[in-house]
Amino acid sequence: MIEFKSLNRLSVYLDRLVKGRLWLKVIIGLLLGAGLGILLNPSTGWVTEKLSSELANWLDLPGQVFMKLVQMIMIPLIFTSIISGIVSNTSDNLKSFGLRLLLYFLFTTGVAIFIGVVVTMIFKPGKYVLLKGGLPNSGDPSTVPPAASDLLEDIPGAISNLIPDNPLEAILTGEMLGVVVFTIIIGVAITQLREDLVRPIIRMAEAVQKICMIVVSWAMMLVPYAVFGMMAALLSRTGLGVFVGLGYYMLVVVIGLLVLMVFYLLIVGLLVRYNPLTFLKDIREPQLLAFSTASSAAVMPLSMKTADEKLGVSSNISDFVIPVGATINMDGTALFQCATTVFMAQAYGIELNMPSILLLTVTVVAASIGTPAIPGGGVLILASVLSGAGIPADGLIVIIGIDRILGMFRTAVNVTGDLTASMVFNKFYGSEMAVEASTTGER
Questions:
Q1: pLDDT at 93 over 70
Q2: H helix runs in 310-395, sequence order
Q3: Which range marks the domain in which residue 354 is found?
Q4: Spatial separation of the C-alpha atoms in residues 331 and 342, rounded to whole Å
Q5: How does pLDDT run across 153-212, given as a tens digit for each residue?
Q6: Of 31-40, 130-139, 263-272, where does the model show the most confidence?
Q7: What is the mean pLDDT of residues 389-409?
């Protein structure tokens, strides 16, 4: 088998960001941006509304450039990473735990959705916002929750749509689930080729990975300025009063994410038999970088290096689990999407019945699997989730404003989920795959 150099070797492009305490610069940027945003808000009387709007557009520029750079390289990076994970394993390895990995991801996503529904139902942040004036078009009785009667009829079509009939269209539209399925099929097909035909494909994929990480390292330099500008633009447009009103909703989402983190620690402690506190200490660097960048795809090399060197995960496991997890294991995003949907239903005075909650759960599972691993990816497809639950999407304009802040928290949780999955599958399959890999090498 042709050797495919692991993506974790490219973590050198991220090491200086960790050593430079990017997370601290991000927090400083948040605080300074908040101060500037309050000063630029027209309600303070320091600047006119027109000037405030123009300055906000310029303040948003670093964040927009950062997001475009990450979006630009996301698909080629994930494409080559998944192929590297497949080529570095045998087809028997993939058969042994590929389906179980998907079922595991679906299970943890379901747990995340359950947590999101429960915490939002308990704390009712939408009711609070409704009392404070509500979201845009609140009180409009024209929408009602849909029934789930056609849910079973749609399942066969949804399964067949997993395979894209036009892969280029899936790539151009950023339909990540279609891209992942297409990549896995191509990767498995590559393992059936002769070594002399595989070698140039491998070398090209390695070059693409390195190019993508160079672009990521450039984008990372903009992160503190992007966060500063985002926060300043947000408070200059919405004002401190509205931001504080939404603070309760943000707190509820963060509480849900913390509960999900506890769930991961229970898996690590009870199932893997690894000290949860040691686990948190070992994964601190990828967590902080994920918090800083809000992009789990950009942190993949560091996550893989951490799994291999600090957590003792076999590279055969991490090379496949982490790239796949970065695209379809979005537990933090699923919790956010579900909590936000219930929050908006509360803010619009819509009571969700059991069929609606069932439909919401299925929709969020499908949506979270296809969510791009980029900043703002969760909001990009949240409109479809709201439509499925019969909730107006007008309030999304408010959510978009604060999404960058919540995105940092949920991305750190997403990365934790990927590393947890790596440890779980290393526990049950690591020794088998190491033996098979050594046997293949001897041949």
A1: no
A2: 315-328, 331-347, 354-369, 377-380, 382-388
A3: 22-442
A4: 17
A5: 555 665 676 677 788 877 776 666 677 778 888 888 888 888 888 888 888 888 887 888
A6: 263-272
A7: 73
Quote the tokens at residue 194. Answer: 């002769």
CB distance 46 to 40 below 8 Å: yes
Domain-embedded: residue 12: no
Residue 9: inside a domain: no
Per-residue tokens: 42 = 């027209």
pTM over 0.70: yes
The CA distance from 169 to 183, in Å, is 14
- Contacts for 208 with CB less than 8 Å, ≥ 6 apart: 76, 77, 79, 80
DSSP 399-440: HHHHHHHHHHHHHHHHHHHHHHHHHHHHHHHHHHHHHHHHHH
Place of tokens 């990480």: 213
Confidence label for 111 from pLDDT (cuts 50, 70 and 90): very high
CA distance 77 to 83: 10
Given a contact cutoff of 8 angstroms between Cβ atoms, the answer to whether 226 and 374 are in contact is no
| Cα–Cα distance for residue pair 313/320, rounded to 1 Å | 12
Burial class (CB in 10 A: 0-12, 13-18, 19+), 155: exposed
Q: What is the pLDDT of residues 199-215, one digit of tens each?
A: 888 888 888 878 887 88
Task: Name which of 88, 320, 302 is nearest 216 in CA terms.
Answer: 302
CB 164 within 8 A of CB 178: yes
Among the residues of 267-314, which ranges form H helices?
276-282, 284-293, 300-309
- Rounded to the nearest 5°, which phi and psi values hold at 434? -65, -40
Report the candidate in 326, 68, 75, 80 with the shortest Cα–Cα distance to residue 219: 68
Question: Where residue 114 sits, what CATH number does that domain have?
Answer: 1.10.3860.10
Smallest Cα–Cα separation from 417: which of 294, 312, 291, 263? 263
- Amino acid, res. 266: L
| pLDDT given for residue 164 in this prediction | 77
Which amino acid is present at 354? M
DSSP label at residue 145: P
Give the 3-state secondary structure of residue 47.
Answer: coil
Instruction: State how many domains the chain has.
Output: 1
Q: Does residue 402 form part of some domain? A: yes
Query: Is residue 78's pLDDT more than 50?
Result: yes
Two tokens, residue 62:
């670093």
Is residue 2 one of the residues assigned to a domain? no
Q: Residue 382: which of 335, 348, 424, 416 has the closest Cα?
A: 335
What is the mean pLDDT of the segment spanning 264-288?
Answer: 95
| 302 neighbors 384 (Cβ within 8 angstroms) | no
Q: Give the amino acid at 279.
A: F
Please tell me the distance from the alpha carbon of residue 378 to that of residue 65, in angstroms, as a whole number.
18
The Cα 443–Cα 441 span in angstroms is 5
